[in-house]
Amino acid sequence: MTVAIDDDLWAAIGDPTRRRLLDLLLTAPTATATTLSGQLPVTRQAVAKHLSVLDRVGLVEATTAGREKRYRVDEAQLARAVAQLNAVGDTWDARLRRIKAIAENIQRRT
Question: Residues 76-87: pLDDT tens digits?
């Protein structure tokens, strides 16, 4: 099975603050930028910008609650990211097995 790799998704996940936000959101059903910023060494505005990026790639969903947005992880999109990561891992595992076989073949001939 071939899984298409979504570069925008991985660019979003590549940022350590965004990964930490995902971790925090996975431990709470929903959270606001304000509550999340209290758990990170960045401002509320920075958290809001990071959440916007995560929302744009579909990793989080926002719902309006009064004057604030409440964010939650989109589990289907997170599962898609995990599938992509597993596919990349499987590809590299196959490549490394091939390299090992070539190296063993060379070693047997010497």
Answer: 999 998 999 899
Determine the Cα–Cα distance for residues 62 and 68; give it in Å rounded to an integer: 10
Rounded to whole angstroms, the Cα distance separating 84 from 47 reads 26
Classify residue 24 by burial, with Cβ atoms within 10 Å: 0-12, 13-18, 19+: middle
| C-beta contacts of 59-65 below 8 A and 24+ residues apart | 59/9, 59/12, 59/13, 59/22, 60/21, 60/22, 60/25, 63/30, 65/32
Structural domains of the chain in order of their starting residue, each with its CATH number: 7-109 (1.10.10.10)
H/E stretch holding 75 reads helix 75-109
DSSP 38-64: TTSSS-HHHHHHHHHHHHHTTSEEEEE
Q: What is the pTM of this model?
A: 0.79
